[in-house]
Amino acid sequence: MSLRGRRQILPLLPMLIYFLLLQRIVENEKINAEKTSKQKVDLQSLPTRAYLDQTVVPILLQGLAVLAKERPPNPIEFLAAYLLKNKSQFEDRN
């Protein structure tokens, strides 16, 4: 690769690392959600952190990753629409 090509890629490395980490987090959350859904826990009796981890964290992480990638001018509306549009993928896990 030429020096010019390297100079163009180097500024993108932090963003690439960020998205790879987000992807890893989302994958881990999916695995954790699958494990916990098998255990059928009463959500009302869970501590706050466990409740959030099992109900909203997976979809929030995925939505935030898309939000960071697309950077829309109205991020709150974008995230709200994303959550409503994709909630069916996550509702079975609760």
TrEMBL record:
Transmembrane feature ranges: none
One GO-annotated biological process of the protein: chromatin organization
Protein's cellular compartments: Nucleus
Organism superkingdom: Eukaryota
One Pfam family named in its UniProt record: Dpy-30
Organism: Anas zonorhyncha
Keyword Transcription in annotation: yes
Family indicated by similarity: Belongs to the dpy-30 family.
Protein name, as recorded: Protein dpy-30 homolog
Signal sequence annotation: 1-28
